[in-house]
Design a protein that fits this description.
heterodimer, A: mainly alpha, 2 domains, B: alpha/beta, Glutathione S-transferase Yfyf (Class Pi), Chain A, domain 2, Rossmann fold, four-stranded parallel sheet, 8 strands, 9% strand, globular
Chain lengths: 161, 300
């Protein structure tokens, strides 16, 4: 696992030696102001190849606003690297139940936020078709979405283990 | 490519249809050729899908792109999340042959092939580049006497390496589009700060997400504006429904009205608050509604 951590981070352009631990990332982080997200520490842990970083819940407190990445004086693609860490964490089975639910929703109806009765009514009030021109209207389109997710084994990835 | 297909995403058609209607009305008025994109799915949501599995993210994103390639139309998004997800996928698939081959293997399952023939646009970036604030100003029939706190949203401009819309600390292009409607864009503390919703934080860590939102709202209230304007329905949802949650959690009494840029532009193009769906927001600020009805009726 630890070899994969290094390989993946390298592929994401995160040169483990280029981070000088200046803390600009943490100081710029809108989440870190209030939460346990300490980007500088995550980078340090990652470059020391500590796989415990993958089980750190703080990985999921990042809003992916990219401010750290924009401001990094060493041009490290920090947010991209954090997304790589998240994907590894998911592979290792760390997935929040709320995120699992959203994923299942996409598998089920092609949308992360599906249509509800209240919105159908709002659509009609505006003179719009109550069912929008999306995958929700076309069963064959929904079938395509499901086939693609199955082909990628996404359904297995998000299934409760 | 001057022909577009309108990509709705999830939150606009399924929670804020007023933004869908407003966008269609504005595009029509501005003589922009934008068709529907029948059968499109979730972009898919970058916070969850891009964080989970690259192959599945690229498969769903490329399917949406292929639907528009078949129409020979660029995709027009009205959401920063959809824009980020589709533009990133489009870029990666165009520049990385290996990734493209992998994704096309997957797309073959449903008889599709990604060819890389279209671009992904965002309505704000599109209006700015293709029309510009001056030309847009010529269409305005109802100049808006409103003070606006503009929220760019993160994924419209970042990562700047890929978006190429200029610097990200103090951008002005969106402000210029707002001011083209007659409204005044008021500067405020932490204007470029995230709304707190993205990256799966709103769904996965609601209390922390609301803390970030509260900070934003406090700064906006201090600026003394009439409303917030955004270009992303996920930020819109966070500001609108989230405001009620913030009030519940922190005992505050925020009631700041919130408009998507299509709704603001729609008002300035002469459409009524009703047809733009502004009254359908969770935040019901009667004073503001009365004011925009007066503006819309030419009484102010």
């Amino acid at each position: 696992m630890s070899e994969e951590l290094l390989r993946v981070l390298k592929a994401a352009g995160l040169d483990v030696l280029s981070c000088m631990q200046c803390g600009t990332c943490t100081g710029s982080c809108p989440s870190g102001r209030n939460t346990g997200l300490n980007t500088r520490r995550i980078l340090r842990e990652a470059r020391k190849n500590r796989v415990t970083v993958l089980s750190d819940d703080a990985l999921w407190l990042c809003t992916t606003c990219y401010t750290c990445q924009e401001r990094c004086p060493r041009d490290i693609p920090i947010t991209d690297a954090l997304l790589e860490l998240r994907r590894l964490a998911i592979k290792e089975g760390f997935m929040l139940p709320e995120h699992r639910k959203i994923s299942e929703m996409v598998v089920e109806c092609g949308h992360a936020v599906p249509l509800d009765e209240e919105t159908k009514q709002k659509r009609e009030e505006l003179g719009l078709d109550p069912i929008p021109e999306t995958v929700q209207k076309y069963p064959e389109a929904l079938q395509e979405v499901r086939s693609l997710l199955k082909a990628c084994k996404f359904d297995e990835l998000v299934a409760e283990k | 490519m001057e022909k577009l297909s309108l990509f709705l995403g999830c939150i606009v058609p399924n929670r804020y249809p007023g933004i869908e209607n407003a966008t269609k009305l504005c595009l029509q008025k501005l003589n922009i050729d934008a068709s529907d994109l029948p059968g499109a799915s979730c972009c898919p949501a970058p916070g969850v899908f891009k964080s989970f599995d690259k192959a599945a993210w690229l498969a769903l994103a490329s399917r949406n792109i292929v639907l528009s390639e078949r129409l020979e139309r660029d995709i027009l998004t009205i959401c920063n999340g959809c824009y980020g997800s589709l533009a990133d996928a489009n870029l990666e698939l165009k520049k990385d042959p290996e990734l493209r081959a992998c994704t096309n293997m997957c797309l073959k399952e449903v008889g599709m092939e990604f060819r890389g023939t279209v671009e992904i646009r965002h309505i704000v970036e599109f209006l700015y580049k293709e029309l510009g604030p001056e030309k847009l100003g010529e269409y305005i029939t109802t100049p808006l006497d409103l003070k606006v706190a503009l929220h760019y949203g993160c994924h419209l401009i970042k990562p700047s390496r890929d978006r190429k819309l200029g610097e990200t600390e103090d951008p002005v292009f969106f402000d210029e589009l707002v001011e083209a409607t007659g409204a005044k864009s008021i500067d405020y503390t932490d204007k470029m700060m995230c709304c707190g919703a993205g990256g799966g934080v709103r769904s996965g860590h609601a209390p922390e997400s609301l803390e970030m939102l509260e900070r934003k709202l406090a700064c906006i209230r201090q600026a003394g504006v009439d409303c917030i304007v955004n270009a992303c329905p996920f930020c819109h949802l966070q500001f609108d429904r989230g405001q009620l949650s913030v009030n519940e959690r922190f005992g505050t009494d925020y009631a700041i009205p919130i408009l998507h840029y299509s709704q603001l532009l729609g008002l300035a193009l002469g459409f009524s608050p009703y047809e733009l769906g502004i009254e359908q927001n969770a935040i019901q600020n009667i004073e503001f509604l009365a004011r925009i009805y007066e503006i819309s009726a030419g009484l102010r």
